[in-house]
Amino acid sequence: MIKLLIAGIWVCVVTLGAVYFSVDMATAPEKPADDANRPALELVRGETLTIPVFSSDGVKGYFLGRISFQMDKAKMAGQDLPMKELMTDELFTLLVGNKMVDLSNTSAFDLQGFRDHLKTDLNARLGQPLIQEVLVEQLDYLSKEDIAANSEAGQERKPPLKIAEGVTIDGAQSSGH
């Protein structure tokens, strides 16, 4: 009789231990403290932009770019921002006005500096730090001569000069910004 009672108590202890550990393992781990302080971000996809590069002779070539942003979702609530226009103006200023890209030496292009400069300037124009991260999907240069050569029938198409290797962003376009 004692053996039966000890066996029953043993089965209860093992069952309770198994249930406790399975529930403990099934619960989600706590988020690290630094993730709790990070704002919720929303992807604002940029449109493909073609920015002309001028010289004294006229149009010299074109920058082809697509840049998207990770923006603070809470701060964006209720704001209708003209992101396309702001981004186009800022890119025109950086690429053509400031000449951040030296076309004779594209390997010296500082992609992180370009992202930081774009983020800082756009946040200053918006009046608050809405943009958390700048994602460069494409940044290429196509000269006027390359465009003419590509438009001729029977010619082998020349690819644009890749200035920065971009990130690939999958998924649908984000809501209306």
Structure description:
This protein has helices spanning 2-26, 33-37, 73-76, 83-97, 111-126, 144-151; strands at residues 41-44, 49-55, 58-72, 131-143, 161-164. The protein is α+β, with helices and mostly antiparallel strands. It folds into 2 domains: 2-32; 36-164, 2-Layer Sandwich (Tetrahydropterin Synthase, Chain A), CATH 3.30.479. Strands 1, 2, 3, 4 and 5 form a 5-stranded antiparallel β-sheet that branches. α4 packs across α5 (111-126). It comes from Rhizobium halophytocola. This is Flagellar basal body-associated FliL family protein. Residues 150-177 are annotated as: Disordered.
Task: Name a few traits of the molecule.
five-stranded antiparallel beta sheet, Flagellar basal body-associated FliL family protein, disordered C terminus, 41% helix, 177 residues, elongated, 2 domains, single chain, alpha+beta, 6 helices
Secondary-structure map:
Elements: H1 2-26, H2 33-37, E1 41-44, E2 49-55, E3 58-72, H3 73-76, H4 83-97, H5 111-126, E4 131-143, H6 144-151, E5 161-164
Antiparallel strand pairs: 1-3, 2-3, 3-4, 4-5
Helix pairs in contact: 4-5
Quick overview of this protein structure:
With 177 residues, this protein is of the alpha+beta class. It contains six helices and five strands; from the N terminus they run ααβββαααβαβ.
